[in-house]
Amino acid sequence: MRIRIVDAFTDRPFAGNPAGVVVFDRPEFPSDEWMAQVAAEVNLSETAFVHPSDGEADYELRWFTPAVEVALCGHATLATAHVLGVHGTVSFATRSGVLTATTGQDGWITLDFPTAPLTPLTPDPKLLDVLGATPVSVHHTGPNTDDVLLELLDETAVRDLTPDLTTLAGYDQRGVIVTARADDPGSGYDFVSRFFGAAAGVGEDPVTGSAHTALAPFWSGRLGGRAELVGCQASRRGGLVRVSLRGDRTLLTGQAVTVIDGELLV
User: Fold this and answer.
1) What's the topology of domain 118-251?
2) Which class for 85: exposed (0-12), middle (13-18), buried (19 or more C-beta within 10 A)?
3) Which has the closest alpha carbon to 16: 262, 261, 258?
4) Is the per-residue pLDDT at 172 higher than 90?
5) How many CB atoms lie within 10 A of CB 265?
6) 62: pLDDT confidence band, cut at 50, 70 and 90?
7) 28 is catalytic
8) CATH architecture of 2-114+253-263
9) 28, 46, 56, 228: which one is catalytic?
10) Which residue positions are annotated as catalytic (predicted)?
11) Torsion of CA 87, 28, 97, 213, to 10 degrees
12) pLDDT tens-digit series, residues 145-163
């Protein structure tokens, strides 16, 4: 069975966020146990499993981290659309509803995802100790993402953060997003972020598309209601995500590169 490793939200190999992609010919998934074992073996932030559908969408799509199945994943959806190579729009039935991916003439892929609502939170002192951060504001994102979003003072604070990932793995939410406005307006991006998903088996995720469904409305509200923004995820690999806020939907645009094309022998 064929498996690809695709770097998403980048135009070059060994950058962005790598995802595994397994495409099944038959309109059914294998067992959950088998997919979980493959995802653990691949050991990337997410591995996507997809098969043709005769239902409301073109395909059915699921995502697994090395530890759990997740309800929404941006970079592995982008990687899947890249692998399928469909020009125009392809739709996916997922745990977060029907999602679409549209490939433009220039090769850029735009995902249509549900916008994550934001609910203000009182900062959890234990979480702040684990992160080693003093936030400007704290919000919960959900329901598809179930993350905590912390706005920090500036870009340097985001980039310099060194959280205790072992302790963070015991935290209840799927992940923790830290973000700040870009220090330099001429940098080519409007805000920076990092994502820590230790509770889902992902220490620091290189580029998290789903987190941008919360970052888009958050920064739109702080940057004069602008609907078109660019986010920079400041991980070691790094990547840029173009976001376009459309009310209850958020468009995420990026590129992808296949770096490994191999075969599963089990």
Assistant:
1) Diaminopimelate Epimerase; Chain A, domain 1 (3.10.310)
2) exposed
3) 258
4) no
5) 5
6) very high
7) no
8) Roll (3.10)
9) 46
10) 46
11) -60
12) 999 999 999 999 999 999 9
